[in-house]
Amino acid sequence: MRDGKAGAGGSAGRLTRRGLLAGLAGVAASPVAGHALGSIVSGPSVISSPPRTWGAEETPVNLPDPDVLALDPSFGLVNYGNAPLRKLWQGAGWLEGPAWCTVGRFLLLSDTITGCQYRYDPEDGPQGHVSLYRRESFNANGNTFDAEGRLVTCEHGMRRVIRWEHDGSVTVLADRYRGRTLNSPNDVVAAPDGSIWFTDPAYGDGVVEGHADVDGPANPQRHLNPYLDAELTSQYGGLRRQEDHTFRVDAKTGKVEAVLGQKDVAGPNGLCFSPDGSRLYVASSGVGPGAQPPLPDHAIHVFDLKQGRPTNGRLFTDFTLAGRAMRPDGLRTDVEGNLWCGAWGPLGLCGVFIYNPHGQMIGRIRLPVGCSNLTFGGPKRNILYMCCGTALFSLITATQGAGHS
């Protein structure tokens, strides 16, 4: 999920094609230019050839889709060449946390800026339909459904992880560690053993996607007021930053355990398990407010799981493309063990990267903006849904998402 860079979610104005073309020289010089070009253009895209348009009036795309790129023959096993990329909806502040509800057959989405959560129904009309799911989610980010179909959500604003029970009540799974409140829980997944794992960087420790710290390294001059228009913050929400962690919540005891620290993965963001549950993948994204060394390395790390705990941490990929350092975000695995990763960076390179279990990039999806998070959904779990700033994209694939990711 997004690393909270200034301006990343706030690229509000639509850019003209002339403006984009004029800015391409700047793109080549800036490693974070993908954030600056976060708005999705209404005119022709400069990514594919021939240029394509996005939206309800888009021109039919020649197949296979020119923006779904095979880099290795093995990508043909998971790519369905007769399906085009589609932009399904646009209008959010910053979309995150896509989670497919198997029972309800809908996609749950979080808007970290407005605090709303949305329900996307793919069966309601040709483009599907988006409706309001939860008006106030306290700047919710990551979501997942556990094995019992209960929704688990990370809340930046309240700095906690909650679970919605079947009777409509709420259980707080985690809001502190060793007596200290959490930072801003970001992404969350259910492990094969029923435990809940989540990352806790400080990307939401600001006024846009949560609330500022009362003091300390994330608010060193004390200029930001955490109490403005936040009646519950002083009672429940954390007010001071701590070290970045990746946490595990035990399914039976509810114990909150830090399984990875900042020295293991700094700025932890997206996370997921391999299909057989033997591996854990964690993305190291951007620097959160008040971060202290060690700082994120913008790479993806992999760990072996022994007795349900991560060991033998190592670099899975440095996440570079065409000699450019990209930035990983949300992660998911498919049933073949391939890793699908949201990628931020220059226009033309950003989108989604697909790696095989050995760390080789076998394909990628070019998008007109970086991808903050993604998941597989649909009745067959073969539709890749991609949250991209203000918009939602989809692609039908020839594989299926791993059930617990």
UniProtKB/TrEMBL annotation:
Alphabetized, the UniProt keywords read: Hydrolase
Which sequence ranges are marked TM in the entry? none
From which residue to which does any coiled coil extend? none
Q: Where does the SMP-30/Gluconolactonase/LRE-like region domain start and stop, copy by copy?
A: 96-387
Q: Return the SUPFAM superfamilies for the record.
A: Calcium-dependent phosphotriesterase (SSF63829)
User: Known Pfam families for this protein?
Assistant: SGL
Q: Which PANTHER family match?
A: LACTONASE DRP35, LIPOPROTEIN-RELATED
- Protein name as catalogued: SMP-30/gluconolactonase/LRE family protein
